[in-house]
Amino acid sequence: MPGAHTDPSMPEEHPFLEPEPLPVAEKTLYLARWTTRFWAWLIDFFMVILFLNIVRGILAPLWPIPLYLDLLHWDLAEFGFQTFFFFAYWTIMEGFRGQSIGKMVMNIKVVNRDGSRITYPTAAIESVGKAFLLPLDCLIGWLGMPGTKLRVFNRISNTIVIKTDYREPSGVLYVKEKE
Questions:
Q1: Is 176 within a domain?
Q2: Which residue has the higher pLDDT, 37 or 71?
Q3: Domain-located, residue 166
Q4: At what angle do helices 34-59 and 76-97 cross, to 10 degrees?
């Protein structure tokens, strides 16, 4: 209809022209599954508890510390120390490489939303929820942000957990002989 379109800032619509295609993404990031993230967390949990119990065994003659995960002799100060140690572990490991030992085993990584490496301060913010408030952090993420695969502290720190692709470097071929 001539004259029906009066706003010069708006482009005229043509019913027979196809709309412009959406821009192609420069990079594709695959978000890690909740089950994979859980297994990585569980590996980290047992690795840290094992480490703390070994240190406890070495220091026992000098400083009597109860066994970690000893539910019969639970001490609030020890629980606080363990929790802070978990926070420090995740902050240092994920700030350095984006991966804790559990994440390395499960081939996942914490990155900024654009896929770039996170910094130590970002890792610290992201680790607060994991170390101190994990059940609440996950529950709010699952119920309040369904389908995003984010915990609350992922959202606060502007991070995501992605799958990593562990393959040979370009130009290198690994030959695997049968065992």
A1: no
A2: 37
A3: no
A4: 120
List pLDDT tens digits, range 38-74.
999 999 999 998 898 888 778 777 766 655 556 666 6
Judge whether 39 and 106 are in contact, CB under 8 Å.
yes
Q: How many CA atoms lie within 13 A of 85 on its CB side?
A: 18
Number of domains within the chain: 1
* Alpha-carbon distances, residue 149 vs 51, 92, 101, 122, 152 (angstroms): 30, 23, 21, 18, 10
Would residue 11 count as lying in a domain? no
Q: Is residue 19 part of a domain?
A: no
Whole-number Cα distances in Å, 122 to 44, 93, 117, 141: 19, 12, 10, 18
Q: Which amino acid is at 100?
A: S
In terms of residue numbers, what domain contains 120? 34-161
Task: Give the separation between CA 119 and CA 159, rounded to whole angstroms.
Answer: 11
- Those residues with Cβ within 8 angstroms of residue 40's Cβ, 6 or more apart along the chain or in another chain: 100, 102, 103, 105, 106, 108
